[in-house]
Amino acid sequence: MKHEIEKIKDLSHKFSVILSKQQKMYGGMIFACTILAAFMETLGVSAILPVIDGLMSPDELQNKWYLQSFISLFQVQDTQTLILLVCSEVIALYILKNLYFILYTWLVRKYTYKIKRELGSLVMRSYMKQGYIFFVNNNTSKLIQGITGDVTSINVILDGIFNLATKLLTVAAISVFMFIQTPSIAVILVILAITSVFAIQLFYKKSLRKYGVLLRVAERENSQVSLEAIHGSKEILVAKRQDYYVKKYIDSINSHIKSCMKIEMASLTPGYIIEMICVSGLLAAIALQTRTGGVQGEMITSLSIVAVSAFRIFPCIAAVSSTINTIRGRMPSFNAAYENVKQIKESKQETSQTVPEEKVKQETGKAVFKEEIKFNNVSYRYPNTDKFILNNMDFTIKARTSIGLIGPSGAGKSTLVDVLLGLLVPEQGNITMDGEDIQELGIRWNRNVGYVPQSVYLTDSSIRNNIAFGIPEEQIDDTMVWNALEMAQLSDFVKKLPKGLDTQVGERGIKFSGGQRQRVAIARALYMNPDILILDEATAALDNETEHTLMEAIESFLGQKTLIIVAHRLTTIKKCDYIYEVSDGKIVEKDKAEIFG
């Protein structure tokens, strides 16, 4: 018992961390409604008493103490009228009670789903504010589970707690009412119910903890294999590896089903077990009572009330046991969600202490590039590694010049680009634009940089939405879209499409060719008309002819924008003003004559 009390305290503490002050206040209001719900349930059971008394002894009904105020209020003269009024009042009470329960159920659901929405948004917002390295170091399915599955467990447990409170208060209130009517039978039923619940909890305790953990693991594996199979579908089909992924999916779903079955059976079976035990005990108690005391009118009335009460609380007792088992099964996911939300809130407090709000508000507009970008002894190594990918890099990029970056795979070209984009923060040194640290410039720097990756990510949406990526549709400027398409030399193609900018590109741009996808990516990078354009092996996956036509579009920016091109083929950077080789963490300028002859 002491161990269970500690668990309840721990759960309360975790909810105090997870929930905001406003959410706690709303929760208190819902709990007040829960108390009223239990009172209404008990009132509904007790309201049957005058109806049974009226049927068993109509002539004595007017002498019942609990009807004296009612008789005086309505000035009832005869028994038939009294029974009619009592039945009418009971009907009205049950209508009111059930309407209240509909409202109460709606309030609980609205509240718990509000928590789910707000916590899911909190986690999603936190992920989006993390640095690039966060996404590099975390598995996609794990992140999805943090946003959806773990947050859902909070919703399920919170809903279960309100359900538990309602049922426990109802059981307690009706048990008191039964005890007043027939103390001996009430005591027997309460003992049977408590014994049954404790026995069931003891039986399922260990397995629920075990399968709760397995369920969370299975959910993540199921999500991961699904993502791998869908995103890698082309390679899988070419290599004929479908059987491997089907088997992997079946294994993960079997593990998921097994865990779900264990948890759901632990939630569903207690109702039948408790009903079997309690009904048997109730009937045995009634049989014993009739054998020892005989059957009298007053006794039949009392037993009828007990029977009505018992059959009302049996489902409540079963629901208590089932809800406890559901909460136990969800605890591993809940604990993961708690750790996640706790970490987010702690980091949020640290951020609010270190980053002045007025500074954030000032980060508007675009930092204009006039003279030069300088790498000042920049060094970078990835977390938990000893090797510096960039080691004291020191070089300058003049405004409106073009540079090509070459070097073997793994030399650090992409890392250099990620540092320049502001995605990675140098461990030593800094990068400045016209004397200002790009990390200090923040979003003003990012708004002046266009980036084209090797593998472009296109959403299953329109050309318009893909170019103005991440901008609400009502805020998209079509003139800017067409200007970007013009610069990417894709406007003539889009104009010929029946739906123009509304043309759907398909998931990951599957309806477009490789060259067209890259042009859309270039147009996306140019939407804000940045001064700096960075291409990270943007033509590596294209054939020579497609690359040649795409480079014609890129080379049209020579002398107008600052171009930084990471090259897969030397022909890509032939017209660049400067060429640098990246190797062993260093960067060295190369003589174009030596490279191209």
Describe the protein.
There is one protein chain. The chain has helices spanning 2-18, 21-46, 48-56, 68-74, 79-129, 132-137, 140-147, 149-181, 183-231, 233-239, 242-293, 297-354, 357-362, 413-421, 438-441, 443-446, 463-467, 478-487, 491-496, 514-526, 544-555, 592-596; strands at 372-380, 390-398, 402-406, 428-433, 436-437, 449-452, 532-536, 562-566, 578-583, 586-590. Helix 21 links the parallel strand 7 (532-536) and strand 8 (562-566). The chain is elongated and about 120 Å long. The protein starts with a helix and ends with a helix. Residues 351-362 have low confidence and may be disordered. Helix content is 66%, strand content 9%. The strands form 2 sheets. It has a 6-stranded mixed sheet with strand order 6-7-8-3-9-10. By secondary structure, the chain is α/β, with parallel strands linked by helices. It has 22 helices and 10 strands. Helix 2 (21-46) runs parallel beside helix 8 and helix 9 (183-231) runs parallel beside helix 12 (297-354).
